[in-house]
Amino acid sequence: MKLSVMTLSMLFVAEFKYSIDHDEEDYEEFYDEMMRMISDCGYHAVDVCFETNVLSADNIRTILDRYGLSVSSYIYMGQFAAEKNSSEQIEKAKKAADLAVALGTEVLMLVPQFYEGIEACPAAEIQERLISNFTPVCSYAGEKGLHVVIEDTPDLRLHLCRARDVEKVLRAVPGLELVYDSGNMILVGEDPAEYYHIFENCTAHIHLKDMKKLSKNEPAPQFCDISLDGEKYVTAPTGTGVIDLKRVVRAVRDSGYDG
Fold it and tell me: Concatenated DSSP letters for 5-70?
């Protein structure tokens, strides 16, 4: 297995600063330093996300090559759950597939975004919208040799957390695979290792994440996950949370996963 780092949360500071001063050179210097640090820590690859809004694919690859890194996946966020057969969203996602190829990765992760009023939409309708928008993108990206993946999503309003809901979407979209995230399913009371076994034959990428439940006295950060019973969870340093990651990794190894 090859270890990679997701850059998304690491880039928040640079993204905020860029939104104010629009200094591409400063952003690039920050990104270069970040990649050097990741390489020094012994990682082999990174997941790329919204740095593509500032840096070109060629620029990103040049920096990564400098430190012996590759792109393990490209994460594209879009309004896949807002309406069925959204031609605008489908075309944007196809361009994301082209960008994934330019970045040299084989994995394109599609992330449905929250939208105002989603709480009023029934689960079945949201899933139908996701299926209708994922299907043409998956077909297009598959022709380019990409693995198109979705995650067991922590935002329960998207109805992609329970194993049965994820399975429904995966079965309906030819070629669609899973990003297994070891922390998200605890929000709906499902076991991480058993969850992996359900999807081990269609898992193309993995996020190893530990989680902890906040006590009632702990202040909640701006971004935290809410479980079905209203408890608040946040990501925790590996080994300090409630996820039995040794058991998860054992399940992954036993399945023969080599991604």
Answer: EE-TGGGHHHHHHHHHH--HHHHHHHHHHHHHHHHHTT--EEEE-GGGGTS-HHHHHHHHHHTT-E
Strands 232-236 and 177-181: unpaired
The label of the residue with tokens 């998956």 reads: 138
Give tens-digit pLDDT for 162-182. 999 999 999 999 999 999 999
Residues 121, 158: Cα–Cα separation, whole Å: 9
CB 165 within 8 A of CB 128: no
Query: What does residue 190 show for φ and ψ, rounded to 5 degrees?
Result: -105, 150
Q: Are 181 and 207 in contact (CB under 8 A)?
A: yes
Q: How many CB atoms lie within 10 A of CB 162?
A: 19
Checking DSSP bridges between strand 225-226 and strand 232-236, what pairing results, if any? Answer: antiparallel
Q: How far apart are CA 78 and CA 76, in angstroms?
A: 7
pTM of this structure: 0.94
